[in-house]
Write a structure and sequence with these properties.
The complex is a heterotrimer of chains A (about 180), B (about 100) and C (about 675). Chain A has about 180 residues and is mainly alpha-helical. Chain A contains seven helices and no strands. Chain C is mainly α and about 675 residues long. The chains are: A mainly alpha (about 180), B mainly alpha (about 100), C mainly alpha (about 675). Chains in contact: A-B, A-C, B-C.
Chain lengths: ~180, ~100, ~675
């Protein structure tokens, strides 16, 4: 059990990190987006392995079904799939240096910090917590939940308004002429 | 070798660094958004791992993760709208070229 | 009573406002409005007169009402109110009757004149001011109305302002009376300073309680009398009145004969307790009046301008009144006689002026030397003027007889009691004779004999009805007032000195009894004698021509010159006061030019210098500070711009650096702690 758990973890971690790296280093934007698909799936599996079945499913629905599609739309709309642009990156060396240093700093923290881990975490993994999350969202977390719904509404309208842009003046004039002609 | 909290945290850190690397080096706005999504997912992985391994946590970490996902959805929608607006305005999404407010 | 008083004041001022602003647009230029207004005032005054004199009939009757107006500095209360007693009632009748008659007369006399509407507006202004002067109950309002009548007098004298003589005359009148007004103001201020009140009754009470006494009350009295000297044209401020004849004749009749010049007399009568508490003041008043009465009558003998003769006659008669009031401080009856003379004089002098106006209207000249024989052309004018002349000369059964006789009686009694003051009586007596003489000279030269200027005579005609009716009204009043002895009797009972001061106490102690009957009949006989003497002498000189005028002139030589040139008073003022003013004007001008202008000129460079300094401060210090601030901000901005690449990835890199640094520090600390 333990071994199987470990093997699955390593496989998933490898998929996630590899696809994320491909996203980071690929020069083709569509390829990057597709590799991101694997990253999200892998992450969803990791969540489920960690006993968070609801979050895992949400991850698939929202990220894969929503955000990724959205990103692909963006790619299509802006016509920036690949080529044409000579230089896709900037300050690569400095960024790499800084990030290596950052990781070097963070890793000791992970290992040094006394986390106070539970003794037998495996027991929890067997039970589904969807029902509990649903109850809590409509009781203890009702206010954040409602605010989140409001935020989504605002984001929806805001996104529409921003993306629509100002209609050009000439179009307006033409519209008027047309209506006048009719 | 049993999988411990630290394993997840290392994955999370790596994921975070990769996301940050994308955001820091890529000029394309949509690619930068991908990086942001990676960073958010690394945070989610952290939340769920802590919820799994730390005592007295029930499901609050999961709920936080749900909210982060909601946030990510909203962020992605608005950010893409902004990218589109920028593209309409400047006919480019190479964000380092858009610095008309610098001076 | 209160309502009546308000109404009396309201009609003329409403007429004034309407007439002044809309006069030109009204039919007939609004003459009916002013005349009607004063007519209504006359009716109200008449009702008031009946109420006070006949219904009340009390010598000490006093109606008083006072409204708070405002409070001045130092808690001095200014009020407005009415003080109505028998004197007020009589005076109201005099003012409104004469004013109404003159309004009526003006409709004919001023017909077709330029500024016809303004003339009636000014008349309304005068009527209002004069009625306010009569009705008011405190010194403050008295002074206001005093100046208001002065202003209306100024406006009316200068009515023909395009004539230099009229313009000069109105200025002269205003400035000369102003000299008196300044004294009056000082007098009022003295009283207010020592008593802190304006109200007549309160002041009288304070005076009778001796709250102020000695030299203060004397000074206050003499100063107040200074106002009367100016307004009533007493010596030495009499010079303005003859010149004031430049105004239209109705104005001369109303203002400079009947009412305004009598305001001074009225004021002395009204404030009598203040004057009478100081015998010195009373003597000053008596002698000033005597001098005026005597000298003015001397001057009148030789004048040839019909209105000037009447003006000097007015001066002389006002002198009589003032003398009577002065003597009234010592002899009870004289006070009444003075005010009684004020009333009768108002009627017959207004009559005389209006008659002269009628004559001037007919022949278009003021010179009696170019008149003569006019009685055939204008019989009504002639008859009424003769009635007026008889009245002023003191012929029995005409009004002047009663009043003048009463004055002479008072003076004689005073002279008998105090022999050192006997000249007062003598002066007045001789003056009465001279008055009769020059008035009949005027009559004989104007209406009798042969016409001296045939052309003017031919054009002469009787005046229109609106002018003759007033003459007849006034002539009747001059006769009715002439049942003067009776009138004097009931006025004796009703108009008495209001509050008995120190001097009047003395007089009361001497009493009416001893010597008064002797004085009365003696004075009557003597005055009759001198009056007839004057008339007869005049008759012989100017009608019969049995005594040659030329011979008289030659014999009197220097005296004639003295009289003809009005005792050179004007010239004297010209040489002294006016010359002094002119000289000081030069000095003041030099002072102005050098010192004051110099000071003003110096301020310019000073201001410029200051401006330059403050400019430099502004430019280098204030602006410098602001610029320094800007430079500093700019420098900081320039430095921070180095971090602002405007590229978001760059910012993120820096943020990551910062986080890395923070975490490093965190690790080090953790290592140290654990």
């Amino acid at each position: 059990m333990d071994a199987l758990h470990s093997i699955i973890f390593y496989i998933l971690a490898a998929i996630v990190l590899a696809s994320a790296a491909f996203t980071a280093f690929s020069s083709n934007l569509v390829h990057a987006a597709f590799s991101l698909l694997f990253t999200f799936f892998g992450l969803a599996c990791l969540y489920i392995q960690l006993g968070a079945d609801f979050v895992g499913v949400s991850q698939v629905v929202v990220y894969v079904g929503g955000i990724l599609v959205l990103l692909l739309f963006g790619v299509m709309f802006t016509g920036s799939i690949a080529g044409g642009i000579t230089r896709q990156t900037l300050q690569t060396k400095w960024s790499a240096l800084v990030l290596v240093v950052l990781m070097a700093v963070m890793l000791p923290i992970v290992y040094v910090t006394p986390w106070g881990v539970m003794d037998a975490p495996q027991d929890k993994a067997l039970t589904s917590n969807v029902e509990l999350i649903g109850k809590l969202l409509l009781t203890d977390y009702l206010l954040p939940f409602e605010i989140a719904s409001l935020l989504l509404l605002v984001a929806l309208i805001g996104a529409v308004v921003i993306a629509r842009g100002e209609p050009k003046v000439q179009d307006k004039v033409e519209d008027k002429n047309e209506t006048a002609a009719v | 070798m049993a999988v411990t909290l630290e394993h997840y945290l290392v994955v999370s850190i790596t994921l975070f660094s990769l996301g940050l690397f994308i955001v820091m080096t890529r000029r394309n706005g949509i690619r930068m958004l991908m990086g942001v999504e990676l960073i958010l997912n690394s945070a989610n992985l952290n939340l769920i791992a802590f919820n799994r391994y730390l005592p007295g946590m029930d499901v609050s970490g999961n709920i936080f993760a749900v909210f982060v996902i909601i946030l990510a959805a909203a962020e992605a929608a608005v950010a893409l709208a902004i990218v589109l607006a920028i593209f309409q305005q400047f006919s480019t999404i190479q964000l380092d070229e858009i610095s008309s407010m610098k001076h | 009573m209160e309502t009546l008083a308000w109404l009396i004041l309201a009609f003329p001022i409403i007429a004034l406002v309407i007439q002044y602003f809309f006069g030109k647009k009204l039919p007939r230029q609004g003459d009916w409005l002013s005349t009607g207004a004063i007519g209504l005032s006359l009716i109200c005054s008449f009702i008031l007169f009946i109420k006070v004199i006949f219904i009340e009939g009390d010598p000490n009757y006093l109606f008083q009402v006072s409204y708070p107006w405002f409070t001045g500095g130092g808690g001095l209360d200014f009020t407005f109110g009415f003080h109505i007693d028998n004197l007020t009632a009589v005076m109201l009748m005099v003012v409104t009757i004469v004013s109404f008659v003159v309004h009526l007369y003006s409709i004919g006399y001023m017909h077709g004149e330029q500024f016809y509407d303004s003339f009636f507006a000014y008349l309304s202004l005068f009527s209002f001011s004069m009625l306010l002067l009569v009705l008011c109950d405190n010194l403050f309002v008295l002074y206001i109305s005093w100046e208001l009548v002065g202003v209306s007098s100024y406006l009316l004298i200068g009515f023909y302002f395009w004539k230099d003589s009229a313009a000069d005359a109105c200025k002269k009148a205003f400035i000369t009376t102003r000299v008196g007004d300044v004294f009056m103001f000082l007098g009022i201020m003295t009283l207010v300073l020592y008593l802190g009140k304006f109200n007549y009754t309160e002041i009288f009470e304070a005076v009778s309680h001796g709250e102020i006494s000695g030299w203060v009350i004397t000074v206050a009295g003499i100063c107040l009398f200074g106002g009367a000297v100016g307004k009533s044209a007493q010596f030495p401020l009499h010079v303005w009145l003859p010149d004031a004849m430049e105004g239209p004749t109705p104005v001369s009749a109303l203002i400079h004969a009947a009412t305004m010049v009598a305001a001074g007399v009225y004021m002395v009568g009204r404030l009598f307790p203040i004057f009478s508490s100081s015998p010195e003041t009373m003597l000053v008043i008596a002698y000033i009046g005597l001098i005026t009465a005597f000298f003015a009558s001397l001057i009148a003998i030789t004048q040839t301008d019909i209105k000037r003769i009447l003006a000097y006659s007015t001066l002389s008669q006002l002198g009589y009144m003032i003398t009577a009031l002065g003597v009234g401080g010592f002899v009870v009856g004289a006070y009444t006689a003075g005010l009684y003379h004020l009333m009768t004089h108002a009627f017959f002098k207004a009559l005389l002026f209006l008659c002269s106006g009628s004559v001037i209207h007919a022949v278009h000249t003021n010179e009696i030397t170019s008149m003569g024989g006019l009685r055939k052309k204008m019989p009504i004018t002639a008859i009424t003027m003769i009635i007026g002349t008889l009245a002023i000369s003191g012929v029995p059964f005409f009004s002047g007889f009663g009043s003048k006789d009463a004055i002479l009686a008072g003076a004689l009694q005073f002279g008998l009691e105090h022999p050192q003051h006997f000249p007062i009586f003598l002066g007045l007596l001789i003056g009465a004779g001279i008055t009769a003489f020059y008035m009949f000279r005027l009559i004989f030269l104007t209406f009798f004999g042969e016409p001296r200027d045939q052309e003017k005579f031919d054009h002469a005609h009787e005046s229109p009805v609106t002018m003759t009716i007033p003459l007849i009204i006034l002539a009747l009043l001059s006769i009715i007032g002439g049942w003067g002895l009776y009138g004097a009797l009931w006025l004796n009972a009703l108009i008495v000195p209001p509050v008995i001061g120190e001097a009047a106490h003395e007089a009361a102690a001497h009493g009416a009894g001893h010597g008064s009957a002797l004085a009365h009949y003696g004075a009557m006989v003597l005055s009759l004698l001198v009056a007839f003497g004057g008339i007869v002498f005049s008759y012989m000189v100017y009608y019969k021509r049995s005594i040659s005028v030329e011979m008289l002139t030659k014999k009197m030589g220097p005296l004639y010159q003295l009289s003809y040139n009005k005792f050179w008073v004007d010239e004297f003022y010209e040489k002294t006061v006016i010359a002094f003013v002119m000289k000081s004007r030069m000095v003041l001008r030099a002072f102005d030019n050098t010192v004051i202008d110099g000071a003003v000129n110096i301020t310019a460079p000073i201001t410029r210098g200051t401006a330059m300094i403050s400019g430099a401060v502004d430019k280098y210090i204030v602006d410098g500070l602001v610029n320094l601030l800007a430079i500093v901000v700019q420098a900081i901005g320039a430095v921070s711009t180095l971090f602002q690449s405007g590229v978001i990835q760059n910012y993120l890199l820096k943020a990551a650096c910062a986080i890395g640094a923070l975490l490093l520090i965190h690790n080090v600390i953790m290592r140290v702690l654990y």
